[in-house]
Amino acid sequence: MKNSIRNLVLASLVLSFSEFASAQTTVKLPAPDKSNKMTLMESLEKRHSERSFSDKQLTDVQLSSVLWAACGINRPESGMITAPSAMNRQDVKVYVCRKDGVWLYLPKENALKQITSQDVRKLIAGSQDFVNAAPVVLLLTSNLENKEIGSLDAGYVSQNICLACTALGLATVPRASMDKEALHKALNLAKDEALIVNNPVGFSK
């Protein structure tokens, strides 16, 4: 009986470790494509919110390009990013939410680190089902003690996402609604990490 209990405990520990290990997977992204010919003024002219998404998937290069535009490193010598940041805190984190789970964007490595294998898009969508159709939802958080400044920083990143999507022929819409309590638990976020805004990203239907 004792052996059986011990074996069950060992099996449970192995399973838990396996799940933890799989959630720590890091995937290198391809280099972003910076050769797009649309000008900033054209992007501003064409930018609009889109709430209808097809099931077409983004390529890794397209995802990398949007993430780099959001808050990637644009000055490698100093580690500065594409978005303004209060006191250069670089407080905004971008979580890539997909069918295969949630991945944290690592700007310095241009990589994705898996946080969970859970598909949390329904928690982000709430009653707005169109969000579930988007292949990717970019979830922005900030850990600044001054929440107003953190929200401003997240707004800069969200605007970068909107303009990048326009230039790349992708659809998006900035949203503030989501089940923040459930998402906080699902992503195991630190107490001071606040969920600010999300951008579903995909192709227009």
Please outline the helices and strands.
Blueprint: H1 2-22, E1 26-28, H2 40-46, H3 60-71, E2 73-75, E3 80-81, E4 93-98, E5 101-106, E6 111-116, H4 121-125, H5 130-133, E7 136-142, H6 147-168, E8 171-172, H7 180-186, E9 194-202
Antiparallel strand pairs: 1-6, 2-3, 4-5, 4-7, 5-6, 7-9, 8-9
Helix pairs in contact: 2-6, 3-6
Output the CATH class name: Alpha Beta
What's the helix-strand series? HEHHEEEEEHHEHEHE
Instruction: Give a short account of the largest sheet.
Output: 7 strands, antiparallel
Spatially, the strands of the biggest sheet line up as: 1-6-5-4-7-9-8
The total of beta strands comes to: 9
Query: Mean of residue pLDDT?
Result: 91
Low-confidence stretches: 7-22
